[in-house]
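Lab meeting notes turned into a lecture example. A postdoc, R.K., suggested we walk through two folding results consecutively so the class can see how the record format repeats. The first protein's sequence and structure tokens come next.
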Amino acid sequence: MNTEIESRLFIDGQFADAADGAQFDSLAPACGTLICRVAAAGVADIDRAVAAARKAFDLGVWRHATLQHRKQVLFQLAQLVEAQAEQLAQLESLDTGKPIRDARAVDIVGSVQMIRWFAESVDKLYDEIAPTQASVVAQIRRVPLGVVAAVTPWNFPLLTALTKIIPALAIGNSVVLKPSELAPLSCLYLARLSVLAGLPAGVLNVVPGSGEVAGAALGLHADVDALLFTGSTATGKRFMQYSGASNLKKVSLECGGKSANIVLNDCLDIDKAVAATANGIFFNAGQICNAGSRLILQRGIAPVFKQKLIAQMTQFFPGDPAESTTVLGSMISVAHADKVRAMIAEAQEQGAVVLAPLPAWNAPPQLDAAAWVLPTLLDQVENHMRIAQEEVFGPVLAIIEVDHVDEAIAIANDSQYGLAAAIWTADMRLAHLAQQALHVGFVWINSVRAGHIATPFGGVKQSGSGRDKSLHAFDNVSYLKTSWHDYS
């Protein structure tokens, strides 16, 4: 690729090495080769980034700018991302192992839409006047929190980062972004574009580094007012602890999921349901928090559904992520692929059966076949098994058969997670009752993993708190201030 790769920290409008010179390897997971060495932020670097963000916020160069000016800068950023779409897509594909076609059509297109939607939305937020006695005007305003930290994952590096930081920036906060050390390169490229867009120094800082050092330092920092996180439940819990141990900063979490996809006997369109089910678990090699990883089939429809699903599975063929025809890219690392394979083996030991396993893949010599996990259907799964209870984060579908819808809903709710669920049925009354009974943050009816930027996304239980996307995302990065004006 022709793109010049930036690998330094971005603090106070400048790229710089880590204070102690620390670096880590950024590897291309599809082939295991070194892309570059990336600066690893330490505690001193986090302190510098937070101080720069605080200074910019206190000076008010961004938060006191007119809404129209902030919109113009963010629109310019969107235009730059769009203009650099191919370079960014290549970085995403190289850094994560995902197919270039998905990086182009999903990650980068979605990133541009994300910036533009929130930029356009920010001046549509109205203040409120509370109903009080006639001599009083009680004004309720939405106010930026100050310094917002975002700790983001590797599966959709740029898109997820923008989901967090653009609402924060649009409303007037300063931001410190720590992208995953497994895929930091597109976020560092974004930092370069932010300068060209006209974002003032210190308003956006990008500090790649390990979760144990840089992430913990942000979580514990007393001058960070809010922390936004997408990732594992275990790490999310640590950020809650960091908040309690420091300054009670607002914490918004989008954590793990084990989404149930319920298909009933009266499913209106089996072919549509099969295609959506396959895409819902095999897209991005299953490395998606709301992947429909538990397929709960009513027995009457189970034989034909599984037969069609086997045929659909073969469309997710592996290949070189750089090739535009490739549908299934690599996992983020061989270590993660090994973990997924171990969970499949354990499920088999517990009685699950691999349904129509795909033949072994002869990877071309430039790729590391060990980084791939082929689409896997596990039949005869019981909900108490680990494969049905823990997030696999891979292209593995656990199939559970049931007799009645009540049993399906009970199994769907029998999980520590509460991110999303789906139900396929022709009975809209039943669908309405089911969506009320499913204890999750998002329910799909006759679809899976559908959504829109205008619809809030997030979970309950150990899937986290707070909501991404929609106007509700501003709740994560602002607080309500009441002004009581007494004219008596």
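The second example is placed directly after the first for contrast:
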Amino acid sequence: MEDKVLLEILKTMDENKAKDITYLNVSNFNPLTEYYIIGTVMSNRQALSLANHLKDVLEENDINVKHVEGNQTSDWILVDGMDYIIHIFVNDARNRYGLEKILSSNDIYKVE
């Protein structure tokens, strides 16, 4: 893995106690983005805090954060960093939405 920004995103997620962190390289299929990064946290408050940290990491790397979707009651927060789409799920929301299952059922996406 050579992508410095991706490494910083993964490190920030780990330092902020996200669990089951994974990423999908979608660059061969999706011309609008490079990676989907997915992680799970224990609370809505933790999700918002992590989203703010990730927004800072992206901006420090001159990545335009298009928007952050979700609020203090959301169980899924999305940080749209153009080439880096970050999904932060609270607890069982990750399984309930099944994003990875949907994406991996399409042979184009590869979980790394």
